[in-house]
């Protein structure tokens, strides 16, 4: 399951604050983390969220590599039965591979955030399916993932909370 995520506004018109606990297992440098946070803010513009490791926060781990079974995944959202669990992962090595030779912290941080935002949307909307385009597209062209333009990664309009 290829999944990226967003923040939760489930079913009701009332937005709730989404706490995201970022677990950096790869030692991102500060420039990369800054770019990550900036892009996440752009992509999650409609969601009230903050980085906060509250016990009930969504765990968003940045790891080096995905499980072997999903060797090409950029990120994953784990499931518990029918539910998408508040456990999301983003993988540095597969993201770097998709960026080819680009290693600029601004580009890497931005790409990681795009994958993270995708997984967060899976969780917040409890959606296991994908859209044809936008943030919940199943895959992203490398040129888009590395690109400065955030617009291809905004959530498609039809993806309203259910
Ligand atoms: Zn997905």
Based on CA atoms alone, the radius of gyration comes out at 14 Å
How many H/I helical runs?
4
**For the largest beta sheet, what order do the strands appear in spatially?**
2-1-3-5-4
Going by helix content, strand content and strand pairing, the class is alpha/beta
Question: Could you name the CATH class?
Answer: Alpha Beta
What is the CATH topology descriptor? Answer: Collagenase (Catalytic Domain)
- SSE run: EHEEEEHHH
What percent of the residues sit in helical stretches (DSSP H or I)?
Answer: 25-40%
CATH level 4 superfamily: Collagenase (Catalytic Domain)
Q: Which percent band covers the strand fraction?
A: 15-25%
How does CATH name the architecture? 3-Layer(aba) Sandwich
Largest sheet, in brief, is: 5 strands, mixed
Overall body shape? globular
Distance from first to last alpha carbon = 21 Å
The set of bound ligands, ions and cofactors reads: zinc ion
**Number of DSSP strand runs:** 5
Spans of at least 5 consecutive residues whose pLDDT stays below 50 are 5-14
- Tally of domains: 1
Give the overall average pLDDT.
Answer: 89
Describe the structure.
The longest helix is centred in the C-terminal third of the chain and has 20 residues. α1 packs across α3. The chain has four helices and five strands, in the order βαββββααα. The protein is globular, with a radius of gyration of 14 Å. By secondary structure, the chain is of the alpha/beta class. The protein has one domain: Collagenase (Catalytic Domain). About 6% of the residues have low confidence. β4 and β5 form a beta hairpin. A five-stranded mixed beta sheet has the order 2-1-3-5-4. The protein starts with 17 loop residues before the first strand and ends in a 16-residue tail after the last helix.
